[in-house]
Amino acid sequence: MKHQTLAVLLAAALACCHRPSAEMAPPPTTAAPHQGTEYVPPATTPGVDGWVMYVNAKPYTPANVKDFRPGFATPEAALLHFYASKMRGDEDWKQALVNESIPDWDRVFSAAMFKRLQEKLDRSRNWNYLEISLVGKKESGDRIHIKIKARIEAGGRMESGTDDATLMKIGDRWVVVSIPT
Question: Which residues lie below 8 Å from residue 116, measured CB to CB, with a gap of 6+?
């Protein structure tokens, strides 16, 4: 029985090796992951007044966000995508905001909401974000408020504190609809 099994395996191996190269399967390749698919939000624990607090949330600084682009699959990812881009000084932060490329964006995002967001973006235009970390989150209807701890340089002054950003899910992605100022 052993000899028959070995003979079949040997024949199969030889048949494989003697096929013309055009018939051989190409070597496996690893595809690059889609942007943002690897980001996992930090663990959470129940907080007070409906808040859920992040446990051991990583602080993000200009030094550790060079290649950090977490995408928009979770509210945390979208918010960190925004701030990481601001720290790098590139334009990727715009992708984290509601825009015309998102189907049905205008059904859930009003002109008044857009005006408030634009005012906050204008007010924070010259801020240098030195450190951002997630503190907690709270659901409120169709929105999620994420409390962040931030350290910024604004107008030559160093400031730090906690404040809330607001995000909404539009279609299959999360977008920033309000930032702290």
Answer: 178
pTM for this prediction: 0.78
**Average pLDDT score, the chain:** 82
User: Per-residue pLDDT for 24 more than 70?
Assistant: no
Class of domain 44-178: alpha beta
Among the listed residues 72, 95, 97, the one whose alpha carbon sits nearest the alpha carbon of residue 177: 97
Backbone angles phi, psi at 52, to 5 degrees: -115, 125
Phi-psi region of 107 (alpha: psi -120 to 50; beta: other; left: phi over 0): alpha
The neighbour count for residue 109, using CB atoms within 10 Å, is 19
Write out the H or E segment, with its range, that includes residue 133.
strand 128-140
Segments making up each domain of the chain, as ranges: 44-178
